[in-house]
Design brief:
Layout: H1 2-18, E1 26-27, H2 29-38, E2 43-48, H3 53-63, H4 66-75, E3 77-82, E4 89-91, E5 94-96, E6 101-104, H5 107-112, E7 121-125, E8 131-136, H6 141-151, H7 155-158, H8 161-167
Parallel strand pairs: 1-3, 2-3
Antiparallel strand pairs: 2-7, 4-5, 7-8
């Protein structure tokens, strides 16, 4: 009986792990751009700050959802970018820095968010690193899924988001 109990205890972590989804594979901006050049895929950027409560909720509730993680990993090169980072970033032939001239904001965050500094904001880029659009605010997994599907393919080039939503069927409940 004691051996059976020990075996059961050893199996619990494996059973628990098997029910978990694969987490989002996050890249740096430079890595995502290089990958998109080699194998074209849109780039998704999560612009966040360390102090942003809604950013943390987005990580915890939305990005950890198995359907969302699967879409981000299969349709995009996902980037996690601290909008107040002090690290220089090379992007589109230019080096963006956080020199303090815009307060705590990194120059790249300012450019990608088009000067509208609200967090969280996610940014969709083409495989050629061209800005499609930033989308600000917290979104649940159910609200996030159609947006990822829309920008993860070519739908955004062919129809409005509103028209897309009329025929979208999601997996998130």
């Amino acid at each position: 009986m004691k051996k059976a109990f020990i075996v059961l205890l050893l199996m619990v972590p494996a059973i628990l792990a098997s029910g978990q989804s694969t987490p989002v594979k996050w890249y740096s901006i430079e890595e995502a751009v290089a990958l998109a050049q080699a194998t074209p895929r849109p780039i998704f950027i999560d612009a966040y700050t360390d102090w942003c409560g809604w950013c943390k909720k987005l990580d915890k509730d939305t990005f950890s959802h198995p359907v969302i993680a699967e879409i981000l990993n299969s349709k995009f090169y996902a980037v996690k970018f601290n909008a107040e980072s002090k690290d220089p970033v090379n992007f589109q032939g230019r080096t963006f820095v956080n020199d303090g001239k815009m307060g705590p904001t990194h120059q790249l965050a300012y450019a990608l968010l088009q000067g509208k500094l609200g967090y969280p904001t996610v940014v969709f880029l083409t495989a050629k690193s061209e800005l499609i659009t930033p989308v600000s605010g917290y979104k649940s997994a159910k609200d996030f899924e159609p947006m990822l599907d829309y920008f993860g393919g070519i739908s955004w080039q062919k129809q409005s988001y509103e028209d897309f939503l009329k025929t979208f069927t999601g997996k998130v409940q």
